[in-house]
Amino acid sequence: MPSLQPTASRIAGTGAYVPETVLTNDDLSRRVDTSDEWIRERTGIRERRIARDGEAASDMALAAARSALAAAGVQASELDMIVVGTISADMPLPACAAILQQKLGAGPCPAFDVAAACAGFVYGLSIGDSFVRQGSARRVLVVGVELLSRVLNWADRTTCVLFGDGAGAAVLVPAEESGGRVLATRLYTDGNFARSLYIPGGGSLEPLTPEGIAAARDKVHMIGSDIFKVAVRNLTQASRDALELAGLTPGEVDWVVPHQANLRIISQVASRLELPLDRFVIDIDRYGNTSSASIPIALDEAVRDGRIQPGHSVLMCALGAGISWASAVVRM
Ligand code: ACO
Question: What residues line ligand 1, using a CB cutoff of 6 Å?
Fold first, then answer.
């Protein structure tokens, strides 16, 4: 990797991809004992996207990455690093980032996955920014991608209604003297909640057996109320921490791009930060919870439709399995 003058990084381009197939709440109510009303009122979700048969996480990551590279004016061959936040990679080994690197025709730059669940994209942003800051990378591709529909138990109404598939990406390059830059990032994990949201089987502790598969041990298990309680508190604190590091008050933020897990969580964070909900980029109604992809998908949408403008201050915050959570403040 190149050795460069240390400088902050900036987001030079964003991209996103969601599969075409739409699964509505009404569709789900024909599969499990649920209703459009319950899902909308408890979560804010109306529909989500589902990958087509044969489509891989790396395919979705590729589409989002190409779009971000084009927006940034960076060639895949110019990348110094690829970081992919995912917990639903194509296969346990190798990293999704390695497969993405090959599909992009990039390399031989370092390419690795970050398993921080919903916080994976912000973790990747922080890692990429650190490498640019220390002068050992110039162009870093950060991706959040999840193909959660393949790791859900479609008979479990407490989880299957919540999630969707998708990918988002951003390209980091060295910041210029004035203009956009990553102002602050903060990362956290509390392993005491490791079993509040997890996939128990299929790892080295519990290799899969036919009985394990029949009992859906290879699918997502979640105690949603455990996560809900800590999510509001931790996301608010992480947001305050990153803002303090960036030297900003909540009122100085132009846009908040939160992880889209539950509209009620987002609303409660907004009220604790004393910010109006219309300053939040929200797309959970259309995509559900796409885990690590949710922030870069929402960010890309708001950049492309002109809500987020150059010079705007953007706060991002996410929390998911681990539990791991993270925040970032970026001047676009
Ligand atoms: N349809 C109808 N009823 C349901 C459904 C459903 N899909 N799911 C649960 N219920 C029932 C429950 O069985 C329960 O019934 P009971 O009272 O008879 O026992 C009732 O609804 C209430 O269930 P709760 O779990 O208490 O509902 P809650 O209001 O907490 O909402 C939810 C559940 C939406 C999961 C919420 O807890 C939540 O959003 N949690 C946080 C999720 C999160 O942020 N996860 C982290 C990110 S994901 C990642 O990292 C990959």
Answer: 34, 38, 42-43, 117-118, 157-158, 161, 197, 224-225, 227-228, 231, 261-262, 289, 291, 320-321
